[in-house]
Amino acid sequence: MVEKPERKLVGEQPHGAVNPEWEVFVRDDETTPLRHVGSVSAPSAEIAHEEATKLFAWYAVDVWLCPSEETRRYSTHSLDANAESMSIDSGEEKRTHEL
Amino acid sequence: MISISKLLCDLDAEGDGLRYDAATESSKSQITNEKQHRPVVVWNLTKQCNLYCSHCYAAADTEQAPGELTTTEGKRLLDDLAEYGVPVVLFSGGEPLVRDDLLELVSYAADLDIRPVLSTNGTLITPEKATELRDAGLAYAGISVDGLPERNDAFRGKEGAFDAAVRGIRACLKAGLKTGLRYTITEHNVDDLEGVVGLLHDEGVDRFCFYHLDYGGRGADIVDADLSPERKRAAVKRLCDLTRSYHDRGAEIETLLVGNYADAAYLVEYARRHLGETTADHVAEYLRRNGGDPAGERIADIDYQGNIHLTQFWQGYSLGNVRDRSFGAIWNDDSNPLLQRLRERSEHLTGRCARCQYQDICRGASRLRALAVNDDLFAPDPQCYLREEEVSPATTALDAD
Question: Residue B319 and residue B82: Cα distance in Å, rounded?
Fold first, then answer.
């Protein structure tokens, strides 16, 4: 039996009150996929890169930064009170997993 | 958290099981009978505060931040933490009492068998509020006072803050709520340690937690106000002497140190000098069970917007957000290379930490301070105050030869 996970769009909440939050993605060598490793708080992408470098310089060949508030999160996790249910027509969604 | 009173004066406490895996040896009822496997979680309920303290790690402000977790989300978070087995939630801020759902959340946590405790500036605690907090199931209120009146008020940005905090302490004690002091030691208030303990002990307080300054939030802006390593050492010695002096007089106060695991090594050295080798060995054994600096392991922080941090002081980096993923999934995610290396930090520490004989009970102390000062996660903590002969006695002896 193949069932589709029921994901919701996590509400577009601010992710940083003092400075903007930046999602950090790193790659440990050129052949591996980018991996999400959390986020840093910084006023600009340049400073976010400096902060991420301090934490992951020993590890990453590539560091990608994405403004947290620009990232859309679709998740089966259900803590967010503002999450929107996503209705996807049966059979259209390719990404499925077996339960 | 290192208990001077437990280690040097053998005072039992509710945290013995949690802290030292010593529940069966303790005469006090225990928070947990097993050494903790899950972290104590600090939850910064809000960024809003009625004061503006110069050392605030959360950079709290008078305004509420956007996107704070709602009451509904907070309860879901507590469900999530209970399911993961979190033993204690420390409701913090900002000032948690500015949230009008604090009682509801405390009560909800208590019903889930999570021990709810509170970190507050105390200035908003009226007798009625103290009673309500007690009835909601609050297990402990830690109230911040950072010096005698004039210095405290300057530090906290408001005249009368000291008196208001003491009124809050009185209200809690009168309600029968276990209440203690939180005191961040800096150059500005180090001279007031004994005075504040004396004054609050006269009020009926018997638990005193002393925090070293960590370099997060506004704490990073006042690094110059931190004590030099030698003065820090002297301050810790004074607290050890003070604790023993109270106990010698029959006043069994509980005193604890937070935020610098060089204290663990120092307590062993102190015990050796003042109480003998056998006691020193006993102290070292307790501290081995304690496990050293807890960042990323025995302590976690969730901020008002749901971001998870390695400690409450380390607000500049987040492992993930509880709106996106469960706390347990984020905390257990060993694919995060930083988390993984931090948890095996003994293999990566450099400099004097790498050769320190006390590495097993300290584990490099604050990685945040190392990062803030040296831009290097595994460099020595700049606030380690151990002397070279204490760090590596064999090498020092060879050098002397």
Answer: 20
